[in-house]
Amino acid sequence: MSTLWRRVRLWLVLGLAAAPWLAAAGLVISVLAAVLAPLATLGVGRVVDGLGTADAERVTSGLWLVGAGIVVAVLQSVSWPLVWSFVEDLGERYAHDHVLRVVAGIPTVAHHEVPEMADRVALVRRHARHLGNAGLRLSTDLSALVGTVTLAGVLASIAWWLTLLLPAALLPAWASGRAFRARMDAERDNAQAIRVADRLQDIARDPATGIEVRCSGAPATLLAAQDTSLDQRLSAVAAAARRTRALASLSRLAWIAVLAVCLVGVFGLVRSGSLGVG
């Protein structure tokens, strides 16, 4: 089984297994809202154009699109906290159980003796709670994908070159994802800093070692060691952010430039009469 398929399978399991019917209902509502949002905007344009040309059929179809968009938007706003709060709670419990089974099922003691494996286990434990949000993130990502495809169709119905807005808008998203991956890589490469800090706190809290720490005047030493370890991690994360900052800025500037050109083009079509006001 490939690594990509394992990741997709794990994502689907964590997102849907805890509450499949509830998560599926929330997913369907989110996808419908993502589809109808751009269509409702198109419906407003059809209503405006229909009123300008006295086209009753065009007005009616536009009103249907607007009405459907409003109904689904209201349904989503009402159901969102009800559905996803339960899915998140159940997903968090399921994720904790899954992580516990994985960690307890390690057949060796390598995760105690090998630093790299210990760091990976500590990282999984620390992010176990966030795994409960897999269903919500799955819904958000799928809705964004479907909404993007729908928006592409709406833009193409106006002018084919307006679809260039989509790849231009994906540039900042790609840059943000690259920055996020760089940060996660830096955190993973320096996960031992968190493990060291946790271990130092355990030493200070444990009754057997804590009394020795206090009697020997070692708190300052422990604090300095913890700060040094965490500062190294912070420096690595900051360096990753600096490496991706220029790309993020340039991608946003490119998106703004393409958007400005498209707006000027649309205004030109409206003034020439090739495109309706709606």
TrEMBL record:
Tagged with keyword Transmembrane: yes
InterPro entries: ABC1_TM_sf
Single GO molecular function: ATP binding
The keyword Transmembrane helix is annotated on this UniProt entry: yes
Coiled coil spans: none
Gene3D superfamilies: ABC transporter type 1, transmembrane domain
Source organism, top-level taxon: Bacteria
Ranges that cross the membrane: 63-87, 158-175, 252-270
SUPFAM superfamilies linked: ABC transporter transmembrane region
Major subcellular site: membrane
Keywords: Membrane, Transmembrane, Transmembrane helix
Location(s) in or outside the cell: Cell membrane
Protein's UniProt name: Uncharacterized protein
